[in-house]
Each structure stands twice: as structure tokens, then as C-alpha cells.
Design goal:
4 copies of one chain form a homotetramer. Chain A is mostly helical. Chain A folds into 2 domains: 1-82, Orthogonal Bundle (Tetracycline Repressor, domain 2), CATH 1.10.357; 92-221, Tetracycline Repressor, domain 2, CATH 1.10.357.10. Chain A has helices spanning 22-46, 49-54, 60-67, 70-89, 99-116, 118-129, 140-162, 171-187, 189-196, 203-221. Chain A is globular, with a radius of gyration of 20 Å. Chains in contact: A-B, A-D, B-C, C-D. The first copy, chain A, binds a DNA duplex through helix 1 and helix 3.
DNA sequence: GATGAATGAGCTTTCATTCAT
DNA sequence: TATGAATGAAAGCTCATTCAT
């Protein structure tokens, strides 16, 4: 934990002010990209620092110079991925649509984003296998994810106000349902496909499931 | 794959006829129990053969004698866990209840079972990280899981017939929704708890989520 | 500190009952012997596990199997060396001689033993550079070294009683003086030789110094 | 030995004429001060160039610029420390006192100086672990330390002449005894304290030991 | 002079697996 | 059957040193 006895920077844990060394930042970004793929593919234990280094121009030593340890690199990868989804999520302008429309939009966006970013999904799975012990030490992620809850809260309020939604919706519960349905579609596709001899990733299957989930969520929020 | 250079049994891939050595079977069962816990706790790469051996009276040599390799042991663990859920699931007598009642019963059972068997959930996560490459080589699991689909199909048919359910339900899609909602509750509890500073395992939270999921599913199958 | 997650024995920290595996004990003894020489020669940081392994038939891996870590091996070496001097020291029968005679005998023995066991002296130097942090965790050494103090105490009492020694001698202080004079002769021979262009290890120089130290100590305990 | 591939000074091996760059000298002095502490604390192998650089404003590059290598820095540290004790020792005006008084004064000074300069003592220990191979290559230290022998020789001569000291004293032998007793008090305090559960550095213990050593030496030089 | 980035060689340690008894 | 001992390959990590600016 206290390996910071070297001269090295080993930052990248939080948001640093725009660094003065653009080259180093590029290399760090490259390492992060490759590491994301490898950690997502093999997990934390299965990933090899050697493999990550071999996949780029940088030597293994540089990974330790910039990230301090395998765990440090893994944490940086987590922070980067969580940060990216936040940035993108904030571009959704849910307030501009009617409550039900906005909700459908959010569900479809979540579905599409998670399907397109299987690496992120897999990293979250890996982190759950490790009982979230790394994320628990990254407090910068806390408020980051409260934003979506706030969005849902105001959405529910608007829906309750105009009568298009039930008045007793719990935004966190709703978020959980959306997340569960979209997440599972990616996270468990391999065992599902293997056991049911099914193709969950075909365009047709994907479109059908997307519609089904959207319908499921919309039904759940509407008054009877 | 051709590690069978020992003189020993190394079966356990399928269902052998009741072994003539009850002692050996007990040992295998013990190993399996411990290995399940360790693989679920640490994943395939994180699990250590040494640790598994240490947690029992049996030596490491016995693991190799009975299961051939770490992967062989892991496959046996998977087979054992999937087999157990099949056995239990078949005790549900869904046909004795009205369609909606049966469905609610199935959802609650699934929720409770997965919550109570986090080890199994974690193993499925681990297997998905490994892209289900081990399960894909275990054909005995194929038909095993088709049973629940058949149950759902007849349940949907009964519901459609008596008008309590929409006539266009896809049993596989329904199964996916139920699984997703119940699975996620266990699989992602650590990241969710860490990020939202939330207690997902308290009795209150669990009961609420259980009711919410049941309601969600029931609404989704009923005609408007 | 808690690396004991392997199957391995990793004992040798204390006095185990005579082990049932004579072969393994022989190998451990061999490792200990080689490691003693290397740690004494290069210090804890300068010693290389690779070098120790190469100096014998055993592989590097076996060192970890038997001793757990580099530090564990180092501690075992310390315990072994301290244990050996105890065993030998206890063979001195100081009670059978007159006080002054016994004291001279003890001084000459200490001088000879330390000169003949430069490895031990160097290990003590190494341990002092490390501020005795390893020895501090080896409580079994405590009472072990109190024996020589007890010997000196009774010797001083006898000498005070028969008038051959001053009545105000402090055994611990006396032990310190003897140790200092004998230890320094080995510990600092290299810098002394280099700076004064002197040969401290020739038979003549050694004999003279031995006599000088003995005289110094005897003078210090006698009444004026 | 032939690392002088830089374009830089890399002197510091001897006494250079007063440098024209006072700033550079200050930096060198700073480096030396920090390096002394680190080498004394961790030994040659345990010391890290990174750590030394971190403890100052100066970067690692400066260490190599001024001292060429880790070994070069270590040699400079040794030279600096030995040089300092020479300077101070020469301020003792032993000739102004009676022989026994002067000797007592020298003993007490040596005891106090070594106690107050544990860093120096530790460096000498480190150098002895390395068999004085670095000091052996620093000829400037040779005559430096002959001075104290000369002082002792004339002191002994004076004592022999006025009958207060034995006529057969060997100054080198006497120096060795004084050094041994004072050095050991610092060098072995950690193992001694650990093994005998003793506090060797308390003011009381220190004062007692100081008196005891002085008495020991004075007794040894006086005629019976 | 001064600094951050880079590096290669080598270090300690780990782990699935097999052997001897 | 059962166990302690053994192993090779490879993993994570470190460190003195140098380069580019």
C-alpha cells in the first residue's frame, strides 16, 4: 500500500490538472486502453503485466513507473471506465422529453451502451468477484453515480405530476431494474448461450430483447 | 486435455454408476464442497489448489487423483452446482397453481434461491468471465436447463388460455427477465453498495426488492 | 508476515521435536549452512536467494518451501547461529576454576570463538545495521543469553568472597567489556587494517591482542 | 571504474581547490548530508538512490552529475565522515594535560563523539561488512588516522617518563582497546538491547558505561 | 544546471503439478 | 491410498543508470 517510495509520478488516481507532459499522458492513456482490454478479458488475476506491456511499445517497467503496481493500474482502469460513462450519460437531455419518452430513451441508451461496452461490463463483474474492494477505496466514484439517481428522481416526479407514472416509484429501485436487465444481457450472454444453445448477440435477438426490456420498464412505472 | 497419465479414476465428468468405494465418494464430495467455496470466493485464477487442500484433511495429491487438474476440479464444481439447482427447481409444482400465482411463486423462489446461494451466482459470473468455455464442454447441462423453459411455456399457455396473461409472451424472454432481475441482486451487490453507499443485503432492502421484482414481472405478463 | 498460506512446513523458527523426515532436515541444515555464509558475506540486502540456491543441489524454490521467504531464511540463520554459541558456551565449566582463572579462561574462549566464527560476528553486525528488528521478534533468544550473565554473576561473587576481585563488579558491565574487546577485533579488522596498513589476523598479532585483552579485563576486576 | 562518460566534474575524491561555483558546492554538501544519513540507516545495498534524491530538492541526475555513481557517492560520504572526525580530533590538546588526565579526556571524548555520531559508526560497520574495499581505495585516509596513534605514542612516552604509566604500552594496542569499548557501545546497542531487554541509551546507563570504560583504560595503563 | 521519462537486467516470490515413499 | 518433498516456468516488482529536453 505504501509503495510510493520511488521517484515516480504514479498519479492518475484522480483528476489532475491538465499535465504539462503531453507525451507521458499519451502513453498513460495508451497503457490504460490496453490494460482495460486485458483486465476485462482475463480478470484481475488472469491478466499479466507482461502481456499488457507486450501489446504496446512501452516496457513493463513503464507500467510500474506510471501506475505503481498491478493493482494501481487496475484501479486506474476502473476510474477511467466509470468516468467515461458519466461523461456520456450527462449528455442525455432527459428533461426535454415527456417522462415516459425520456424513460424509454434512457433504457434504450443504457441497453445500447452496455452492449457496445462489454469491456466495462466485464470489469464490473470482475470487481464484484473481488467484492468491490478496489472501488470501495475510490471515493471519487460516489457522487459520480448519484447523478443518474437524481435524473430518475426528477423524471419520476414529473411523471407523477402529469399522471403518466405511478406516484410511488422509487428512483433507486427503478435504476436497479434498468441496470439489472441491461447488464445481464451482456454479463451472462456466454452461459446463457452455451446452456440454451442460443445466439443472444444477433441483431434480431438484440433488437427484440431491447424492445422487451423497454416495454417491461415502461409497464412497471405506469398506473394501471 | 490429455493429462490422463495417472493410473487413477479421474471421472466425475458425468454421472457415474454408484461407486463401489463409498469412502472415495465422501472424499470427492468433501473436495467438491471446499472447492466450490474457494472458486466462488476467488475465481478460477484466484483460487489456489494449495488453499483448497489446506481447508480439508485430504492432501493435494487427492485432488489430482480424483479430478485430474485444477480445471477438471473446476468443471466438476460447475456440474455439481448446476445439477443441484436442477434437482431443487423440479420440486416446484407450478402446475398446481393459477398461472399468475405460479409465476409469482417462481419469481420469489428464484430470488430467494439465488440470494441464498451466492456461491452459485459467483461461479456463474466467473464462468462468464471465462466466456463459458468450460460449460460449453459440458453437454449434460444443455437439456437440464430446458426444463425451466418448458415450465414457463406451459405456464404462459395456461395464462393465455384463461386470459390472465398476454398471449404473446416468449417463455425464453420471460426467463431472461426473471433471471436478470434476481441474478443482478446478488451479482452486483458489492459495486452497487460501494457506489451508492447502500445496504442491499439488509432484510428490509431484500424484502422490498423481492416484492418489486415480483410486481415488475407480473405486470409485464398481464394484458393491459 | 502472513505468507503462510502455502502447504509448506516453514518451521525451523523454534525447537521442533526431532522431525520424522531426516532427509528434509538434512537439506534444511544444508540450506542453513550455505545461507549463513552468504548472509554473513553480503548482508541481508546484498545476499541473493539465487546465489544461495546455486551453491547447493537444492533449487531456489525449495528455499521458499522450507523457509517461506528471504526474511524467514535469515531469521532461521540467526536462530541457528545464536543457538550454536549457547550450546558451546555451556560446556565451559567456569565453576571448576578459581575466579580469576575462570575469567581469563572465559575471555580467551570468547576471543578465540569470535575469531574462529567471523560469520557469526558479521551476522550480528548485519542485524545491528537493521536495528535488530529481526532478533527483536525472536523471543527464544532472550533467556538464552542470560546464562552467560548468570555465570559472570556467580564468578564475581566468588571473586569478591575470596578477595581476588573487587566487590563492586557489575556482571553485565563486565560482559559488555569482554564482548566489546573481542567483537571489535573481528568486526572492525578490515577498516583497521586498511587505515593503519596493519595485519590484525596474523598469528602473532592475534596472540598479542588476545593476551592484551585478557590482561585488560583481569586488571579491571582486581582490587588495587 | 570507468564510468566517466559524462561531461561533468565528478570530483570529490580528494580535496579540490576551493571551487569557483559556490552553488554547486552547496548542492554537493546537501547531497552528502542526506546520503550520509541514508547510507548509515540502510547500508550500501539497502540505500536507494531514489530515496536520497527524494529527500532533497535536487534531482537524481545531480547525484550522478556530481558523484558519478552510487559507489562514488558512498565513497564521498566515507571520505567526508572520516575527514570530519580528523578535524575535530585535532582540536584536543592532549599535550596540555598530565598523561593520565589526557588519556581520560581522550577516552571520554571518543565515547561521547561516537555516541553522538551513530551515523559514522554505522558507516564504519557497513564498510566492514564490505571488507573495507572502498576505504582501501582511499589512500588519503591512511596518514589521517596515524595522527591519533602519534598522539597516543607521545602520551605513553610522557607517562612512562614520569612514572604514571607502564613503560611497555603499545599505542596501537591502546587505541584499539579504546576504540573497541567505545565503538561497541554504539554499534551493538540494538542486539544487546533486544537480547538482554536492556536500555543502553538512557542517560544513566550511558554515564555509567562511560565511567566504566574510562576506569578500565586507566587501570590498564598504570603500573601495578 | 536541472527534470521527468525511460530502461534492462535481475530480484523475490508464486503456482500448478509431479515424485518418492 | 495418502503424504511431504520437490520442481520449472513464469509472475510481479525493483533498482541503478541514462536519455531528451
Amino acid at each position: 500500500m505504501s509503495w510510493q517510495e520511488t521517484t515516480a509520478p504514479v498519479g492518475a488516481d484522480g483528476d489532475e490538472p491538465a499535465s504539462a507532459q503531453p507525451h507521458a499522458d499519451l502513453i498513460k492513456a495508451d497503457i490504460l486502453e490496453v490494460a482495460t482490454a486485458v483486465f476485462a478479458e482475463k480478470g484481475l488475476n488472469g491478466a499479466r503485466i507482461d502481456e499488457i506491456a507486450e501489446l504496446m511499445r512501452t516496457s513493463k517497467r513503464m507500467i510500474y513507473y506510471h501506475f505503481g503496481s498491478k493493482d494501481g493500474l487496475y484501479r486506474a482502469v476502473l476510474a477511467h471506465c466509470y468516468g467515461r460513462i458519466r461523461t456520456i450519460e450527462s449528455t442525455l437531455d432527459l428533461g426535454a422529453r415527456s417522462p415516459l419518452d425520456a424513460l424509454a430513451h434512457l433504457v434504450r441508451f443504457t441497453f445500447d451502451y452496455q452492449l457496445a461496452n462489454a469491456d466495462f461490463i466485464r470489469l464490473v463483474m470482475v470487481e464484484n468477484i473481488h467484492r468491490a474492494e478496489h472501488i470501495a477505496q475510490m471515493p471519487e466514484l460516489h457522487d459520480l453515480n448519484l447523478r443518474v439517481i437524481e435524473s430518475l428522481r426528477s423524471l419520476c416526479a414529473r411523471g407523477a405530476a402529469d399522471g403518466t407514472m405511478r406516484p410511488d416509484m422509487d428512483p433507486m429501485d427503478l435504476h436497479m431494474s434498468i441496470s439489472a436487465l441491461c447488464f445481464f444481457n451482456v454479463s451472462n450472454q456466454h452461459t446463457f448461450s452455451a446452456i440454451f444453445d442460443l445466439d443472444m448477440v444477433s441483431a434480431a435477438a438484440t433488437a427484440a430483447r431491447r424492445a422487451s426490456i423497454t416495454d417491461l420498464i415502461l409497464r412497471s412505472v405506469q398506473p394501471r
